[in-house]
Amino acid sequence: MNFLCPRSNNLKLSDFRNKHQGEIAFILGAGPSLRHLDVDLIKDHVTVSINSGIAKYIKSDYFVSDDFEITNWSYFSDYLSNAPKANSNIEKSKCVKFLYDKKFEHKCSNIDNHVLYPHTWFYSPEDNTYNLPGLKLNTEGPIVGAKNSSGSAVHIAYLMGCNPIVLLGNDCMLDRDTGFRYYFQFPGEKKQFKFLGRSFESNPNKGFNEKSFKEYWNYFAQVNKETDVNIIDASDSSLDCFPKMTVEEVLKKYKS
Hints:
Elements lengths: L9 E2 L13 E4 L17 E5 L2 H4 L5 E4 L8 H7 L15 E5 H4 L9 E4 L5 E2 L4 E2 L18 H11 L5 E4 L41 H14 L7 E3 L13 H8 L2
Parallel strand pairs: 1-6, 2-3, 2-9, 3-4, 4-5, 5-6, 9-10
Antiparallel strand pairs: 7-8
């Protein structure tokens, strides 16, 4: 079912330009290493959750998604949707939701405080063409081409003036010991599940391609190596294109 987005609730990307100038931003992906995050360490800083990362820290300031499939997941119903059938017994997130306009336009009447953003492109599978300039961070938009919503979140944090930008749960690989793809598959984490569409439990790793994730971030780092922002990898990732630090090390170096 399609819904019209209420104009009064449709914030603009430009409303957030330089909103957090010079502040640390933590980007919460959904990789296995996010299970180790102590959210108390980041609660006083800018926090941006991607997809199911919101279930790890529902008090995140912002939420980002490029994928309308999130509406079929429990975390969307629990924390983000105001639809009549959404779970009313769970505290809703008060975050601002950044959503890819091509996927969410006319489909977000039950999502308050949302911003629809446009994308440029990075890779065209139809003709195997790359657009590397489409990865260049800028303060005007459109948002860079993205392999997943993490790239979009980094650009939005950059547009807000955040520096450094710290990647959490951006593992780009399966857990070495269990083969799990997401943090919420581990004991002690709130389980997330799909209501509609392909069953998550039957093949949770379908479509996962570590090589393509690494390729994306390597190109991203290359294109933005002269950009005036520090992107730090605090994930247990297979990447080597960004400086590696722990959350504690980031705060010790940049908090002041």
